[in-house]
Specification:
Layout lengths: L8 H13 L2 H22 L6 H26 L7 H18 L4 H24 L5 H19 L5 E2 L8 H4 L2 H5 L7 H19 L1 H18 L4 H27 L1 E2 L7 H11 L11 H20 L4 H26 L1
Antiparallel strand pairs: 1-2
Helix pairs in contact: 2-13, 3-9, 3-10, 3-11, 3-12, 3-13, 4-5, 4-6, 4-11, 5-6, 5-11, 9-10, 10-11, 12-13
Length: 339
C-alpha cells in the first residue's frame, strides 16, 4: 500500500505566493521602483535635475556603465567575476587611438580593431581561468593591472586625441535619432547601449552560449559531466565580456574625443553594482539583461542626483556601497527562501 501526500489548495497558494515573493523578477521590479522613486525625489529636491542638459548627461553616463555591465552580467551568471573591465575599456580606447591616429587605419576599421582588443583581453582572462584554474578574482585582478599598465605605456602617459578624425565624436555625442526626429535628440551612445542590450539579451536567452552560461552558474560540475566542454564556453563568456568592454572603450573615447590612459579603474565597481542591483545573483545561475540596464540607470541617477544636491563625493560612494549590500542581502535571503 503506497502512501500519498495530498497538498491543500491553501498550501499550493502559499507556495505560489512564496515563488513570486522570492523570484528574480521581483528584484527587477524593486530596482525599477527604486529608479522611479529616485527620479521623483531628485526632481522635487532640485529643479535642475530634469533639465535637458542634465538628462543628456545621465544618459551618456549610463551608456558607458551600461555597456560594461552587459558583459559582466554573463560572467556573474556563471558565478565568476571580472574586475578588469574598467581598465580593459581604457586599453581598448587607447588601442583605437593608436590604430586610427598613429597607424592611419580607416576609422571604421580602427573602431573594430579597438573592440577586438577588448575581446583579446577577455579571451586571456578566460584562458587563465579555465585552463590554468586561477580563481576569477585573481585572474581578472591581474588583468586589471596589466591593461592599466599597457594603456599607459602604449599612450606614452599622454592622452590620444581624435581632433583630426572627422566625425569620431559623433559616435557618442551625435544623434541619428535627432536628425530624423528633432524632438528626440537621443545621443548615439545611448542607442548603442540599447542595441547592445538587445544583442546581449538575444545571446543570453536564444543561443547555446546563453544556455551554457546559465548551466555553468547553476552547476558547473553537472554541466561538465553531461559532456559539455566547460572550459571552451567559459573562455567564450569572458571573451564576450571583453568585447563589451572594448565597445565601451570606443564609446567613452568618442564621448571625450580622446583616449585617456589614466581613466578606467573604478568603472568595474559601478558595472558590477548595476548587475547586482538588477537582480543577477552573485551565486550564479540567475540574471537578465533588462535588470542590468535598470541597475545601470539606478547608479547613474543616484550619482547624478547626489551631485546636484552637492552631496560630497565620499558620501556618494558610501550610499552606493549601502545599496550594493542591501541588494546582495536581498539576493541571499531570496535564495535561502527559494530552497
Amino acid at each position: 500500500m503506497t502512501a500519498q501526500v495530498l497538498e491543500s489548495p491553501q498550501g499550493k497558494s502559499k507556495i505560489k505566493i512564496e515563488n513570486v515573493l522570492y523570484s528574480p523578477a521581483l528584484q527587477r521590479v524593486l530596482a525599477f521602483a527604486a529608479l522611479i522613486v529616485l527620479i521623483v525625489v531628485f526632481s522635487i529636491a532640485s529643479p535642475n535635475f530634469l533639465q535637458f542638459r542634465n538628462i543628456t548627461g545621465i544618459l551618456l553616463a549610463t551608456a558607458v556603465n551600461g555597456i560594461l555591465a552587459l558583459g559582466v552580467t554573463f560572467v556573474i551568471i556563471t558565478a565568476g567575476i571580472d574586475l578588469s573591465i574598467g581598465t580593459v575599456m581604457t586599453f581598448s580606447a587607447v588601442m583605437t587611438g593608436v590604430f586610427i591616429t598613429r597607424w592611419g587605419f580607416d576609422p571604421l576599421l580602427g573602431v573594430l580593431c579597438g573592440i577586438l582588443s577588448g575581446s583579446f583581453a577577455g579571451m586571456i582572462n578566460g584562458i587563465v581561468i579555465a585552463k590554468m584554474k586561477v580563481p576569477p578574482f585573481v585572474a581578472t585582478l591581474g588583468m586589471m593591472y596589466m591593461a592599466k599598465g599597457l594603456a599607459l605605456i602604449i599612450a606614452e602617459l599622454r592622452p590620444i586625441y581624435f581632433n583630426d578624425v572627422p566625425g569620431f565624436s559623433t559616435i557618442a555625442t551625435g544623434s541619428v535619432v535627432g536628425s530624423i526626429l528633432p524632438d528626440f535628440n537621443i545621443p548615439n551612445a545611448v542607442m548603442i547601449m540599447f542595441i547592445a542590450a538587445i544583442v546581449g539579451s538575444f545571446i543570453l536567452f536564444k543561443t547555446i552560449l546563453g544556455r551554457y552560461t546559465f548551466a555553468l552558474g547553476s552547476n558547473e560540475e553537472a554541466t561538465r559531466l553531461s559532456g559539455v566542454n566547460v572550459d571552451l564556453w567559459k573562455i567564450a563568456v569572458y571573451t564576450l565580456s571583453g568585447t563589451f568592454a572594448g565597445l565601451a572603450g570606443v564609446v567613452i573615447a568618442a564621448r571625450l574625443n580622446s583616449a585617456q590612459p589614466a581613466l578606467g579603474q573604478g568603472y568595474e565597481l559601478d558595472a558590477i553594482a548595476a548587475v547586482v542591483i538588477g537582480g543577477t545573483s552573485l551565486s550564479g545561475g540567475e540574471g537578465s539583461i533588462l535588470g542590468t540596464i535598470i541597475g545601470a540607470f539606478v547608479i547613474s541617477v543616484l550619482t547624478n542626483g547626489l551631485r546636484i544636491l552637492s552631496v560630497p563625493q565620499e558620501w556618494q560612494i558610501v550610499v552606493t556601497g549601502v545599496i550594493i549590500i542591501v541588494a546582495v542581502y536581498f539576493d541571499m535571503v531570496r535564495r535561502r527562501r527559494s530552497r
